[in-house]
Amino acid sequence: MRDPDRPAEDLAALRAQLVAQAARIAHLEAALARERRRTEAAEAARDAPGVPSAPRNPAATGGAAGGASPAGDLSLAALVRGARRERGWSQKALAARVGCTPKTIWRLEHNPRLRPHVRIRNRLAAALDLPLDTVREAVRRQRRAG
Fold it and tell me: Model pTM?
């Protein structure tokens, strides 16, 4: 039913705004669904039988107590590859824990010029049970070397 007090142009403009808002809502709902699926997949991979979980003891991962860096002078590529192999994880298992693709893990391990997003760095540190400062320093060393 048309409002007699509003010109047809105003109604058309309002309809266009509603369509644009509906498109934004659909986009946000799709992004939320993707994030939920990613989280569920990461949780399923973490809880999957036959996939060992990360040890929580720093000494068990080659780290030292007292805040010493377990990375030594390793680049990010060497740090990620070494920590992953130490835990007996495949690239696919680590990717599930980080919430990225196995190809991203492969690139991190093989491309010294790659600069991962801070979100990926944070997730890597958490998944590998490494201090965030260790990962940041490895990125800095890799940046200087590359």
Answer: 0.51
* Per-position DSSP letters for 68-94, written without gaps between them: --TTTT--HHHHHHHHHHHHT--HHHH
C-alpha distances in angstroms, 23 versus 10, 16, 18, 36, 99?
Answer: 20, 11, 9, 20, 26
Position 19: which residue type? Answer: V
Question: How many whole angstroms separate alpha carbon 33 and alpha carbon 23?
Answer: 15
Residues in the chain: 146
pLDDT in tens, 75-115: 888 899 999 999 999 999 999 999 999 999 999 999 878 88
Where do the domains of the chain lie? 1-51, 66-145
Written out in words, the top-level CATH class of the domain with range 66-145 is mainly alpha
